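Name: AB hydrolase-1 domain-containing protein
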Amino acid sequence: METHTVISKDGTTIGYRQLGQGPGLVILHGAMESSQSHIQLAEVLSPEFTVYLPDRRGRGLSGPYSSTHTIQTDIDDVSALIDKTAATNIFGVSSGAIIAMHACLQLPAVKKVAIFEPPIGVDRESSAQMMQRFDSEISEGKTSAALVTAMKATEMGPPIFKYFPRRLLEWLTTMAMSHEKSPPTSSSHGGDETVAPATFRELAPTLHYDFQLSLSLSDEESISNLREITTEVLLLSASQSPQYLRSAVDRLENVLPNINRRVNFTGAGHGVTGNVDRRGQPKRAAEELQKFFST
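Structure predicted for AB hydrolase-1 domain-containing protein:
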């Protein structure tokens, strides 16, 4: 594996990891993730594809978000990477899938895109209220409280968490972060300047921008605009993901005009595409991606 960088339109450095051989495939990670979240998926795909794993802004190898950040900035980052690598395939995970779909509307170089459970169609009013609370807790240094706010809003905690009082959830989150360590990593002969995986404390502030991505596709008009996507699409969902994510894929199935097929990972949750230590099933996810992108 190697690490490289590209400069986006506004001058920000976007770092990415690269491994494998064959046609280029860009994997855009989701919220509370970084380029390392899909390393194992990339390894399975690497015999057939050159896989590019960018760190979205605010993470790892890439520069920070700016005060003027919009979804167009995210598209510019993807565009810079595609211009450099000549990749024509994108796999977008969760909020990364929102970026991928918007990129398809602007970047004709993208020929195929796989979409996994983008958080679209969320209630704008309740989401705005949640974001206000989250931003306030982050600004006050209450990272555990902010993560609990996000976890409850996105239904991403274990099912039993819904029965726990908030104070207990915040304590458990604090304990988890206190034990979270970044394991050392070694450089490869390919010039990999690998950094340790990002921690939850480091990733927490980036959730603000993932919430903004969800709001960009929260009304009927914005979702209807996705009908303009002519790129060939693979839709992916997981049977144990929160209902609103599965419903989002249902809506896309009725909107996107060029769907190759839809695959539902039975018995799996929203983390199915990630590394095994985060309850992922990378081999299972890679099998469907190989079928689609190899055709």
